[in-house]
Structures are given as C-alpha cells and as structure tokens.
Write a structure and sequence with these properties.
Strand content of chain B: 15-25%
Oligomer: heterodimer
Strand order of the largest sheet of chain B: 2-1-3-10-4
Low-confidence stretches of chain A: 1-26, 122-144
Largest interface: A-B, 35 and 35 residues
Strand order of the largest sheet of chain A: 2-1-3-4-5
Mean pLDDT of chain B: 94
Helix content of chain B: 40-55%
Mean pLDDT of chain A: 70
Strand content of chain A: 5-15%
Radius of gyration of chain B: 20 Å
Number of helices of chain A: 8
CATH architecture of the largest domain in chain B: 3-Layer(aba) Sandwich
CATH superfamily of the largest domain in chain B: Periplasmic binding protein-like II
Number of strands of chain A: 5
Largest sheet of chain B: 5 strands, mixed
Helix content of chain A: 55-70%
C-alpha cells in the first residue's frame, strides 16, 4: 500500500552508530503543515483569513523553537509525501476537505506509531487536555495566536513520547511472545527427534545458545530452519 | 402550517436541531425539510451547516457541535466499532436515500478500449503499472461499493490496485490530470466528470447493489437516547421532504435549483438535475432513463433503517480487514438502527413502514444478502482480506 509506515528512523540509526539506546534519544518533532487548497466556494475574505492563520501558525511555531519540515499542498500526492517524510505531527486546517485523506492514513497505519494530526480553527474552542486524555489523535487549536501554539505543541510532544514508549513496549512484548513460540516448537522437535524429555531438550538448546553466543530464540529458529530444509 | 407536534409529553427536548450535511445531491431531503418548513411543522427548527469533510463532520457529531448529520452509512458503523479511532456508540435514525452513486473511469482508459468492469480487469492484467482508484472515506459507502465492484470483476482491490481517499469535488480534476484511473463517489461529482469529459460512468451504484442504502441520518447514541422526541420530529420532517422529492419532476427541478446554490452543493444545476431525474449518459454514447435512480422515499421503503443494511457494511468492513474480528452483527445493528423511533416517526408522517427488520438483496455478483448469516456471507467471498490491518 502507498500508506506510510511511520517509524522511528532516528533512534534506529542512533543504535546502528553505537549511540545511546533508543529510549534515551530525544529528537525533535518533525512537523508538516498541509496547505488547504481553497474550496471552490471560498471567497476572498475566507482566503485572506486563511492566509492570516497560516502566517500566525508559522510564526508561532518558529518562535516556540519548532521546525516545519515541509509545507505540503493538499492534493492526491499528499499520502505519498507524508510516507516519505514520516512526520510526527501534521497540522491542517479543520475546515480542509483534505482531512479525509489524512483519515485514510490514520486508519491504514493504525498499528504503527503514527503522526498526531492537529487542526487549526478560528472558531472552535476545545479542551485539548481532555481530548488527549480521551486518546484521540486529533484536536483543535483555537485562535492560533503565537502564544497558543507552544503549550499545544508541548502537550502534543508529551503525548508523542508516551506513544513512542507504548509502541516500543508493545513490540517488545510481541517479540517475546514470538520468541517463546519458536523455543517451544524447537523443543518439541528435539523431544520427538531425539527422544528427549522437555528439560533435556531445553538444556540442549541452552548450551547450544551459550556455545554459539546466540539468543535462545535464534538457536530455535535455526533448528526449525534445518528441519524445514531437510524435511 | 399546522403544528403537529409541539406540546404535551412528546414535546421535543430540543427545538433547534443543528444538522451537518455534505455538498452532495443526496443531502436533498434534509435540506428540503428545512427549506419547505417541514421542521417547523413538527415543532423543531433545523439549523443546517455545510461540512467540508466526513472526518470533520464525525468530530463535530462526537463533540456535540452538531446534533445530527447527513452521513455515510458505513462511516457510522466504523465509529461504532472503533475503526481507526475510539469506539463511540452511534445511532442511525433513518436511511436518507437509496441508489444514485457511480463508478467513473478515466477518458484515457476509454481510449484504450475500457468500457466496463470486464474490459477494465483485462486492461489491469495486461498493464504492468498499478491502477489507482479513489473513494471518499475509508469505511464509507463509496469505498465499500468500489471494492465490491472491483472484486466482483476478479480484481483484488487491495493487492492489485492502489486505493486513495480524495475529496469528491477534486475527483474530476485528478481524473483529467491522469493522477488516477477511476473513482466512486456521489452525485453530482460523477455526472460532472462525465459532462466535462474527464471520465465516463462505468457502473452506477444501483448496478452494484440494486436499491442499496445511501447516506444515513446519523447521530450519537447519547443524543438519540437523550432526545427521542426531537429525533422523532426530525425523522418525520425528513420523511415528508423525501416524499415531496419523489412526488414529481417539478419538485426535483425545484430542489436542483436550490441545491445548486453556494449555500448547499454549489454546483451546476444541470449536473444535479439530470441524474436526479434518472437521465443518464455514460459518456460513451449510451443514454438511458434509469428506472430506479436516486430515491428519497420510494413509498417509505427507501428510508427504513433495515438492520440487514447496517449489517452489510459491517460484513464488508470485516471482509477487507477494517474490522479485525467478527462482531455480533445482528446485535450491533439492532442497537445502532433506531427502528422503534423510526416507526413512530413513520406513523406521525403517514409513511408506510415494512414489518420486516431484514430485507433480501441480490448484488451484482448474484450473491444474496438477507442478514441471516453474516459470518458465512463474509467467508463466501473468494476475494477477501479478513486478516489485513488496513485499507
């Protein structure tokens, strides 16, 4: 599918380079602003209001020390561009018809760490904290004066880090479960092949892992691979 | 105008009902209920607000900024079952319309000899590139109809094609620019693509599922529970507007005139009117009068919130992996579709209502859907992706 797997490229790279473990890496939010294509009904006043909003947003972000990675038009290529850039946060006007395009991304990447979508709106006051507590990935920024932008982003950043941590824990848990299944299958194979007890099979796996300096699950995987190969 | 329902214990809990609609021809009955003053007749005042996206509409419903909405049937069930977000209990008060959507393919494909599903499938097999098709919302009606149509032609929409969401008003321009091969959307956007020459109508939605449900009049379960009298009045007013629309060509012409204005659909009156009258031109030289075009009433049958209709969207969400697991299809539909409330509104507005909660439909591939065994129905499709994580 064209939709992004929005992953944490930063920490992975840091690991490869032998730097600190991923959980300690603090990186900046990658922010993308989606420019609304003016609707066919938009009048001059609406366009001017929107231009004002966009300018206020940019100034607010810059003053708060946040960088805009890209400013994208809301066209059919938006999903591809987002997949390439892998932003942590997407800011879009709440009245933009491109919101459904982002919704597609949100649904297609629901198992991945995904961007927070922030909406900007002149009229709608909305409680950001409540929205975040409710676990929604989107909320409205009212007004968009520069001074409103920073607290919103700070809360968003907090949520971003919490999600990253949860995602990390989830994938750890999944890996442990997959490891356990592998080990159980390899143990079963050894027991059947070599007429071993469960304890003996386990000890054999363990000593092989220690001798080869491999993880128990990796040894199990090798045994299963060989079995696959030789039938 | 006589006030049917303004006093006593059945008095609406809320007299001003804020209702969202999308700029599509099938918002007509909701809009006309307001324009004709039918809301007033039932003791409520409709405050209509045009929305720019289905996502925005959903959020406003959930946040209580609007009370009810002209909304994709499938979207409501997506929210109910927590697809892509937190699950929130929703309510379908009535079905607003049936039929009258379409699958449009690009003029460029027509030049290569593609005229229908069969020739499209052949072209896709022959062509190395991946074809791109657009719909309007991942869990929505158009997505589910488009997937169904492609799969019925032996095309696996997930594996063999690229699927994207595009706002309906941008469909024609993207088709003309060669950014995509086809789309499924509501009117007047399919008629527009045909009229401006960017595409041709490869199938109407009634070709896919004759008399399929369309947009629902939706709200949250919380709103419906707290405002049964207001909801009943709203449904009665919209039923009456639907009856008025189906009554005569003159009425539909008047509606097309009103809908074409910037406050509503903001599109060419002719693009709205032709298919509202069932006058189809596929753009490849075939012209016909559709016996069952977009309908807002059909003797009341078009508006009944059949539980089997709601269940159908869930079976398709399951089929394409949007729903991870089977749900209790019948129980979910029974709590979402407010049949009891609808029946009261039907009595109030003099609308005939069927006795059955389920109906029997035969779709384009000959498969029968009657709501009796949803799990078996899902497994009966040779092309399905029940284990898939996304769209």
């Amino acid at each position: 599918m064209l939709l992004p797997n929005i992953s944490v490229a930063g920490p992975e790279l840091a690991c490869l380079l032998g730097m600190k473990p991923p959980s300690k890496v603090q990186r900046t939010l990658r922010i993308v602003v989606v420019n609304t294509v003016p609707g066919h009904a938009a009048d001059a006043a609406a366009l001017a209001a929107q231009a004002r909003r966009n300018t206020a947003l940019r100034i607010g972000l810059l003053e708060s020390g946040y960088d805009i990675v890209a400013s994208l038009p809301a066209d059919i290529f938006l999903p591809e561009r987002i997949a390439q850039i892998q932003p942590d946060m997407i800011i879009i006007d709440s009245e933009s018809d491109a919101r459904d395009v982002l919704e597609h991304i949100v649904i297609a990447t629901r198992d991945e760490p995904r961007p927070i979508v922030l909406f900007t709106d002149d009229q709608t006051p909305s409680s950001m904290d409540a929205a975040i507590d409710a676990g929604v990935s989107a909320y409205i920024v009212a007004g968009l004066q520069a001074e409103r932008v920073k607290p919103v982003l700070d809360v968003a950043l907090m949520r971003f880090r919490r999600e990253q941590k949860l995602m990390g824990e989830l994938s750890d848990t999944r890996r442990q479960l997959a490891d356990r299944k592998l080990i159980e299958r390899a143990k079963g194979l050894l027991m059947a092949r070599n007429k071993l007890t469960e304890e003996e099979a386990y000890q054999r796996l363990r000593s092989m892992a220690m001798n080869k300096k491999l993880r128990l699950a990796d040894v199990a995987q090798r045994i299963l691979d060989v079995e696959d190969l030789l039938g | 105008m006589a006030h049917v329902f303004v006093a006593g214990s059945d008095r609406p809990e809320k007299t001003v009902i804020r209702a969202g609609f999308m700029p599509l021809t099938d918002c007509a009955s909701l809009v006309m209920a307001s324009v004709l003053g039918l809301d007033d007749k039932y003791g409520i005042k409709l405050e209509l607000s045009r929305q720019h996206s289905w996502s925005g509409m959903r959020d406003r419903l959930l946040q209580g900024e609007i009370d009810a909405a002209h909304v994709l049937y499938g979207l409501l069930y997506g929210v109910e079952n927590g697809i892509g977000g937190a699950a929130t209990r929703m309510a379908v008060l009535m079905n607003l319309s049936r039929n009258g959507q379409a699958v449009t393919l690009s003029r460029a494909l027509a030049r290569q000899g593609v005229t229908d599903l069969g020739t499209l499938a052949a072209a896709m097999r022959k062509n190395m590139r991946r074809f791109t098709f657009a719909h309007t919302f991942p869990t929505g009606n158009h997505a589910m109809f488009l997937y169904y149509w492609l799969a019925a032609g032996g095309i696996d929409p997930v594996r063999d094609a690229q699927l994207v969401t595009v706002p309906p008003s941008q469909m024609a321009v993207n088709l003309a620019a060669g950014h995509m091969d086809g789309f499924c959307a509501g009117e007047p956007w399919s008629a527009r693509a045909q009229l401006d020459g960017s595409g041709f109508t490869a199938a109407t939605s009634q070709d896919i599922w004759p008399d399929h449900p369309g947009k629902a009049l939706g709200t949250t379960a919380a709103f419906a529970d707290a405002h049964p009298h207001a909801c009943r009045a709203l449904v009665a007013a919209v039923l009456e507007a639907g009856r008025w629309l189906d009554e005569s060509r003159a009425h539909r012409d008047a509606a097309a005139e009103i809908l074409s204005s910037p406050a509503y659909v903001n599109a060419d009156r002719r693009a709205i009117a032709v298919r509202l009258h069932g006058e189809y031109d596929n753009g490849l030289g075939r012209r016909w009068i559709e016996p069952d075009p977009l309908r807002f009433y059909a003797g009341g049958d078009a508006c009944f919130p059949y539980l089997s209709d709601g269940m159908w969207f869930m079976t398709q969400h399951r089929r394409w992996g949007l729903l991870r697991d089977d749900v209790d299809y019948a129980a979910v539909a029974a709590r979402v579709n407010r049949v009891g409330l609808y029946r009261e509104a039907a009595v109030l507005s003099g609308t005939p209502a069927p006795a059955n909660l389920l109906r029997r439909s035969v779709l384009m591939d000959g498969k029968v859907w009657d709501g009796t065994d949803p799990e078996a129905y899902v497994s009966s499709f040779p092309i399905r992706h029940v284990a898939l994580a996304g769209v």
